[in-house]
Design a protein that fits this description.
The complex is a heterodimer. Chain A contains two helices and 28 strands. Chain A is mostly beta strands. Chain A has a domain of about 170 residues: YVTN repeat-like/Quinoprotein amine dehydrogenase (Methylamine Dehydrogenase, Chain H), CATH 2.130.10. In chain A, the strands form six sheets. A seven-stranded antiparallel β-sheet of chain A has the order 2-3-4-5-6-7-8, with no helix packed on it. The longest helix of chain A is centred in the N-terminal third of the chain and has 30 residues. The radius of gyration of chain A is 25 Å and the shape is globular. Chain B contains one helix and eleven strands, in the order H-E-E-E-E-E-E-E-E-E-E-E. In chain B, strand 4 and strand 5 form a beta hairpin. Classes of the chains: A mainly beta, B mainly beta. The interface between A and B is large, with 49 and 44 residues. Strand 1 of chain A pairs parallel with strand 2 of chain B.
């Protein structure tokens, strides 16, 4: 009986041998990993050894030949000028520093623009006059500078036609000041939106990084009524998103909230009249993943159906962005949470379906400042982190597009 | 977890087959079984560094691992070996635990900080050793080589996710048998050289909430010192200080 059992088991040896071969194949797959290059995904924190410096990351561009340039406002507590100066850092495609240069231009306005092969930023001199500074990305040398004939720049934007559009604040007329420039950086069109109250002190505190950081921005939309800009600025006593016709810069409609304490933190056009937006009011952050907006009317933010985002920090900065992959397109909202995480809400672009929520937790407080889709269809996030819980420094995270692909069931 | 179970089932099936095959041959006469344990010191060889910190002034920050003498781990295993007059084949399946620390430095003008992150990697390993032995009666020194397959066991440490599960090693072994009549001691020293990168390239930044660093591409090497207690399944002979044949 025992010998019969042994003979049967001998035959089974061959079957087991085959199974072991399969197991060896699985192990080989584990060891022979897919090669992931450093530029496919990385995390870099950029430190400066001077403790008295605080870096406020503002904006990032990917260079056409690979690599990144990012801009920070640097607050030096030993500086006699209260407004932060400008720092540009050029990195390789894997995030390693190529050069880092400081510029004596103050309160650089988000965001960096790529114009005719140069990297440009808008900042002001000590008299609050706005200038466009163009820099050679190869070595950081200033190639030209242009007086923008406006004051207190708050945001700069290069539109789809490579035209520069700048939001500023005119403290004389107490107005938000939106100007569009020609390709030679001459004023092409300008409009002032009256605030009707003196907010110069709030704007100064925003610029010198000692007060509330307001979510000023300029976006662009194209839909049935035409093309235009969505400009988040002070207007008629409140912080509101104003829709402006692209050529005339006439205000056509807006979304408003309560004075300057509440407002919209981001807007992105998804399709036609469908927009995604985030806001903060009554101490909480909210998201409207997709809602139909009429850019020719004035609407209250509270009339839009919104979902609360309790996990985000108080008056969180939220950066929207489009993610176009080979298989699908998504809308991303990137922000930071109360437990020191960066969070990415990934929505289907054509619906309000939340596909995925990605977190990256840190041991210190982080903030998010810019999100850019890269040429290889990944995304890179510019943010800030408090190293050792004390020193504000910029960080870059590059995520491969595979992070956003739906998981196979 | 499921993968570990599958490997366990395969291992058991293999051992069962070997035992059954031995029933029908003289295999048992050349078999010794036992158990053992020992200590190891992990040696980390960096293939490619992935330092998270970049200094804007160009200073390079320290990014390294603790040395061998600080990386003391341990192992416990079953010991099965087949031998003839000169050669010995040894299997030592068991748990092999490696410890080491990663050291990162962040430099400030008045405050340079060193972050030290401990790792504990526990593997289920199956080392296979081929030994050539010399017979000096009570002492029987040997030398040979070893190859080993290891499977990293899961843990709650998030940094565990930054490593792949499989690991192959190879290296020289040397030691001696000490014949104590009823039992045999096997004192064994082996160096296991990692044959491939053990870092998971897709998860190198998943170092957990408390750690702001990236996992480098590394080889996990290790020096092992083992002591096994073996029982022979053959009839006892040559097992005394006094040469006594019967």
């Amino acid at each position: 009986m025992w010998n019969v059992f042994i003979r049967i088991k001998k035959r089974k040896v061959y079957q087991n041998f085959l199974l072991i071969l399969l197991l060896v194949g699985a192990v080989a797959c584990d060891i022979n990993q897919k090669e992931i290059l450093p530029e496919d995904g990385f995390l870099k924190i950029y430190n400066h050894p001077a403790e008295h410096l605080a870096y406020f990351p503002e904006s990032l561009v990917e260079l056409p030949g690979g690599g990144y340039v990012f801009l920070s406002a640097v607050k030096d507590e030993n500086d006699e000028v209260e407004y932060p100066y400008t720092n540009l850092v050029r990195t390789t495609a894997s995030g390693e520093v190529s050069w880092s240069l400081d510029f004596d231009w103050r309160a650089p306005a988000s965001q960096l623009v790529l114009l005719n092969g140069s990297v440009g930023f808008v900042a002001m001199n000590q008299n609050f006059d706005a200038f466009l500074i163009l820099v050679n990305p190869a070595n950081g040398e200033i190639t030209s500078q242009h007086d923008l004939e406006m004051s207190m720049p708050l945001f700069a934007y290069a539109d789809s036609q490579d035209k520069l559009v700048v939001l500023g604040y005119d403290f004389v007329t107490r107005s938000s000041w939106i100007t569009k420039y020609s390709s030679s950086y001459q004023v092409e069109r300008s409009n002032k939106l009256p605030v009707n109250t003196d907010l110069e002190y709030l704007v100064q505190r925003h610029l010198n990084k000692t007060g509330q950081d307001y979510p000023f921005f300029i976006g662009e939309y194209t839909n049935a009524p035409g093309t235009g800009y969505s400009v988040n600025c002070f207007y008629n006593y409140t912080l509101r998103t104003v829709f402006m016709e692209m050529t005339s810069l006439d205000a056509t409609g807006d979304i408003y909230s309560f004075q300057t304490e509440e407002g919209i933190s981001s807007v992105i056009q998804k399709d036609g009249n469908i927009f995604g937006l985030t806001s903060y009011y009554e101490g909480n952050n909210y998201i409207v993943p997709a809602s139909e907006l009429n850019v020719n009317t004035s609407a209250n933010i509270k009339d839009l159906p919104a979902d609360p985002l309790y996990e985000l920090t108080y008056r969180a900065e939220v950066i929207p962005g489009n993610l176009d992959l080979d298989t699908a397109s998504y809308t991303l909202f990137v922000s930071q949470t109360n437990d020191n995480s960066m969070v990415i809400y990934q929505y289907q672009k054509d619906t309000e379906v939340l596909v995925n929520t990605l977190y990256r937790q840190f041991d210190q407080r982080v903030v998010v400042n810019e999100v850019v889709q890269t040429a290889d269809k990944g995304i890179v996030i510019l943010g800030g982190i408090y190293i050792l819980g004390k020193y504000q420094r910029p960080l870059l995270i590059k995520l491969d597009q595979e992070a956003f692909l739906p998981e196979e069931e | 977890m499921r993968k570990s179970k599958i490997i366990g089932v395969f291992l058991l099936a293999f051992l069962l087959n070997a035992c059954l095959w031995s029933q029908s041959s003289s295999f048992l006469d050349h078999l010794r079984i036992g158990f053992g344990g020992g200590v190891n010191t992990a040696q980390i060889a960096v293939l490619q560094t992935y330092n998270v910190f970049e200094d804007l002034t160009g200073t390079a920050y320290m990014n390294e691992y603790t040395g061998m003498l600080q990386n003391i781990g341990n192992q416990y295993f079953m010991h099965v070996e087949w031998f003839n007059d000169y050669f010995i084949l040894t299997l030592k399946p068991g748990t092999y635990t490696y410890r080491f620390n990663k050291i990162n430095e962040v430099v400030f003008n008045n405050e340079t900080t060193t972050q030290e992150t401990p790792y504990l990697l526990r593997y289920m390993s199956i080392p296979l050793e081929a030994r050539y032995r010399f017979d000096l009666q009570r002492f029987r020194p040997y030398a040979g080589g070893s190859v080993s397959y290891s499977h990293l066991l899961s843990s709650n440490d998030p940094s565990n996710q930054t490593f792949i599960r499989s690991r192959f090693t190879a290296g020289p072994v040397a030691g001696t048998y000490i014949d104590l009549r009823y039992v045999i001691l096997d004192f064994n020293v082996a160096y296991h050289y990692g044959l491939h990168n053990v870092t998971s390239k897709t998860n190198r930044f998943e170092t957990g909430s408390g750690n702001t660093f990236a996992q480098d591409d590394i080889l996990l090497n290790g020096l092992q010192i083992n002591l096994s207690l073996l029982f022979s399944l053959q009839k006892q002979k040559h097992y005394s200080n006094v040469e006594c044949f019967y």
